[in-house]
Amino acid sequence: MNLVNKEKAKQMFIDIGSKYHITLIEWNHDQDHVHVLSKAHPKTEPSKFINYYKIYSSRIINKNFLTSKSNCGRSPSGLEVFVF
C-alpha cells in the first residue's frame, strides 16, 4: 500500500470507528501493514467493529484499486492484506 492508500484506510478507520464508539489514538504504518492504538467504549464489541472494518475496507479497495479478477484477494502491489 502506498501512502495515499494508507491515509484512506486510516480515514475509513476513523469514520467507521465513530459509529462503534472507537477513537483512534495512534496510527503507524510500515510497507505492508499498519499498527493501530485505539480507545473503545466499555460496551463496544471490538470483534464486530473489526469485522465491519475488514468488509467495508475490502469493498472500497476492490472497487477503487483492483482492475482484474486475477488480482482478487491481493492488493495492487501483490501483497496480501491482513487486519488484526
TrEMBL record:
InterPro entries: Transposase_17 (IPR002686), Transposase_17_sf (IPR036515). It comes from the Bacteria. Signal peptide: none annotated. SUPFAM superfamilies: Transposase IS200-like. One of its GO terms (molecular function) is transposase activity. Residues 6-71 form the Transposase IS200-like domain. GO terms for biological process: DNA transposition. Pfam families: Y1_Tnp. This is Transposase IS200 like. It comes from Seinonella peptonophila.
